[in-house]
Amino acid sequence: MSTAREQPDPRETLRSGLPDRYLTPDDIAVIFKVPVETVYQWRKKHTGPPGFRIGKHLRYDPADIRAYVTERKTAGQAAA
Questions:
Q1: From CA 7, how far away is CA 38, in angstroms rounded?
Q2: What is the C-alpha R_g of the chain?
Q3: Overall pTM surpassing 0.85 (yes/no)
């Protein structure tokens, strides 16, 4: 028996509905399969999904992530 609780895959959480928590930069890196440093660069350059700070911690609202992905898909289809 394992005593450690397994963390759910954030991608599965986003597919099945809004999670009951805000996402971390590590979650975003897993979802988009990029290094976490890329997530911080997106924020610095204002090119990635919108995030916000709670104290010193960066968090992302799953609804904003969905909207960002939808926007990017729409922009990609319009350019094609």
A1: 22
A2: 14
A3: no
